[in-house]
Structure formats: C-alpha cells, structure tokens
C-alpha cells in the first residue's frame, strides 16, 4: 500500500498546476537551464523565453543549441521583452564548468533560477568521463554540484535584496521515478562511488537519488548562511518531471523502451512540473530538500529510508548520513576545478 501511494500519483498525475499558458510574466528574471537543447529542457526554455525571462541555455552540443534557439525565437508569439543566450558547458568534463560560470558572471549580476536538468542514462559500463569518473555520477551529480557551488554567491546575493520576492530564488534538481522504485536503501552506497555497479540502470538510479541528496545538502547550506531572514534565502529542491521518453534513454535496451512507453508522459507535460517547482508561491525556504512530483505537487509519501539517509542524527541511535558522504566525495572530486 505504501508503495502504491508513492508510485500511483507519479504514473497517473493530476493536471498541471502551471502551464505555458498560465505562467506569469518573468521579465527581469535570469534563468540557467542545463540540458536545454532538447526535450524537457527545450520545452522549459521555450516557456521561460515566452514569459519574458533572460534564459541561458547551458549546453554541450553548441550546434544543436543554436538550432534550438533559432526555432524558439522564430516561432515565439510573445510580445514580452526577453532574451535567450547560449553558454557552452559539458558536465562530463569538469574543466568546462568554471569557464561557463566565468562567462555567465561577466554578463549578469544576478541569478534567480538554476535548473540542474541535464542528465545521462544507460551509459556503457566501460565508459568514463574526462576525469575518469563513472558518467552517471559525474554528469548527473558531480558536474551539477560544482556548477551550483560556483554559482552560490550570485544566487545568494539577489535572494537577499529588497527588490527580490521572498522564497523566489531557487535551484531545481531533476530526479526520476526510479528513486522511488529502485534506489538502494542508502540512496547512494558509499562503496559504489569509487566502484560502481555493473548494472547501468542501478548506476543511473543511484545518481538520481544523489541529485535529491545534493538538493538537500545545498538547502541546508543556504539556510545556514549568515545574513538576512530565512525567507530571503535560496530554495533548493528536487523534482521528478515525469516519466518521459527523452534523449537520455538513447542507450537503453529497446525492450525496456517498448515496455515503458505506454506510461510515458509527453515532453510538454513533463516540462510543466518544473515551473511549479520554480515559481509556485506554495514553496518556501523551509521546504528546502523536499521532493516535487508530476505535474507540480509535493511528493505525498517519500521513502522513509531515503529521508533517514539525509538526516543528521542527534538521538544517540547512530545512523549514517549518506547525503553528507556524497557531498564530501563530490567536494573531493571537484577540488581541482574551482
């Protein structure tokens, strides 16, 4: 029964709370979206562009990104002032992250929203990134960790100003239904950080649990920083957009795609989850670390073992904060790229 309570509303979600048609104007707001030239990232970028935001398409494939920008600009009917720009980044190569941030900081003095949307799945077991890391953990966790770390000051600064609405500066980490169905009880087993499984789906699932863990760790850090009242701090949460057949499954077995396709949402519907996470007035700093599910609602029944894995215990009962362990490992992995 508990399993059904977790899974059912994600496979058969309620109607979207925010859509492209109902998204309020975002003129003056600055947004970064990773993985934005295709599928959910592209749909999200289009929504924000039409709403008047200054949108930065953070992408590895520059030719694909330029084509996406051209398509967005030539088909938009919005009359709002808006901007869309491309900045290159490859989250599987940590050396590109600092350069991306430097280029962004040379153009902007504020950042209102960062979508850690990019991801890979079902990568060959023999593949390693430029830094020799397992690609799921690097692209889905370590790269976004470094990016968010380097952007922290420009997120925190605008959040504290008088002209920024409380609770409105946010970091959104895209996760997956597999966190509920398949993640191990530790979420991110420490021994698999250096010695990943031979199962590509397990590695992907662990990396998506890791994104939730990192969302929680950043939420705690943002909330603990000295400065203004808590409502003027940065919100960091995770979101499962929906089960959508996106490009990250290009390496998945065809039988798996065939079996799961009937349960896939459309790209547009999946993209509607993320504006709720980004703009809903029902979300506050105190919600940091919480989990959003399709198509814009709080997870009704998160897994207790994963919540325990993110908990700092002061009750004398022991226990391990696996989220802290992941953060420490990611910090070591990114130390030379800051």
A few lines on this structure:
With 338 residues, the protein is an alpha/beta fold. The chain has helices at residues 2-11, 39-50, 62-75, 95-105, 135-159, 178-182, 191-194, 200-224, 254-260, 267-279, 304-309, 322-334, and strands at residues 30-34, 54-59, 83-88, 113-116, 170-174, 235-239, 291-293, 297-298.
Task: Report what the structure shows.
Helix 8 packs across helix 12 (322-334). The protein has 12 helices and 8 strands. It has a single domain (2-337), classed as 3-Layer(aba) Sandwich (Rossmann fold). 43% of the residues lie in helices and 11% in strands. The N and C termini lie far apart (46 Å). It has an 8-stranded mixed sheet with strand order 3-2-1-4-5-6-7-8, sandwiched between helices. Helix 3 links the parallel strand 2 and strand 3 (83-88). The protein has 338 residues and is α/β, with parallel strands linked by helices.
Ordered list of secondary-structure elements with their pairings:
Blueprint: H1 2-11, E1 30-34, H2 39-50, E2 54-59, H3 62-75, E3 83-88, H4 95-105, E4 113-116, H5 135-159, E5 170-174, H6 178-182, H7 191-194, H8 200-224, E6 235-239, H9 254-260, H10 267-279, E7 291-293, E8 297-298, H11 304-309, H12 322-334
Parallel strand pairs: 1-2, 1-4, 2-3, 4-5, 5-6, 6-7
Antiparallel strand pairs: 7-8
């Amino acid at each position: 029964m508990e399993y059904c309570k977790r899974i059912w509303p994600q496979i058969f979600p309620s109607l979207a709370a925010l859509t492209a048609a109902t998204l309020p104007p975002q003129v003056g707001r600055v947004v970064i979206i990773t993985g934005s030239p295709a599928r959910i990232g592209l749909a999200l970028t289009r929504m924000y562009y039409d709403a008047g935001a200054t949108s930065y398409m953070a992408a590895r494939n520059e030719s694909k990104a330029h084509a996406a920008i051209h398509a967005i600009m030539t088909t938009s009917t919005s009359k709002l002032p808006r901007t869309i720009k491309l900045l290159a980044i490859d989250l599987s190569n940590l050396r590109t992250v600092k350069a991306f941030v430097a280029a962004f900081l040379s153009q902007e003095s504020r950042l209102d929203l960062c979508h850690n949307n990019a991801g890979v799945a079902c990568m060959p077991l023999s593949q390693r990134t430029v830094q020799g890391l397992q690609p799921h953990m690097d692209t889905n966790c370590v790269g976004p960790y470094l990016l968010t770390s380097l952007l922290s000051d420009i997120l925190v600064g605008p959040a504290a100003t008088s002209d920024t609405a409380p609770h409105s500066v946010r970091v959104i980490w895209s996760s997956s239904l597999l966190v509920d169905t398949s993640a191990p009880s530790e979420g991110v087993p420490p021994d698999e950080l250096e010695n990943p499984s031979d199962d590509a789906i397990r590695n992907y699932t662990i990396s998506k649990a890791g994104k939730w863990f990192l969302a929680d760790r950043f939420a705690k850090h943002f909330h603990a920083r000295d400065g203004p009242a808590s409502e003027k701090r940065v919100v960091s949460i995770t979101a499962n957009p929906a089960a959508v057949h996106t490009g990250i499954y290009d390496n998945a077995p065809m039988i798996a795609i065939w079996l799961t396709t009937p349960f896939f949402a459309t790209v547009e519907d999946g993209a509607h989850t993320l504006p709720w996470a980004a703009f809903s007035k029902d979300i506050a700093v105190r919600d940091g670390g919480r989990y959003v599910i399709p198509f814009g609602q709080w997870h009704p029944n998160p897994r207790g073992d994963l919540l325990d894995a993110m908990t700092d215990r002061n009750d004398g009962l022991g226990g391990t904060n696996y989220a802290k362990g992941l953060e420490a490992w990611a910090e070591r992995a990114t130390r030379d790229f800051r």
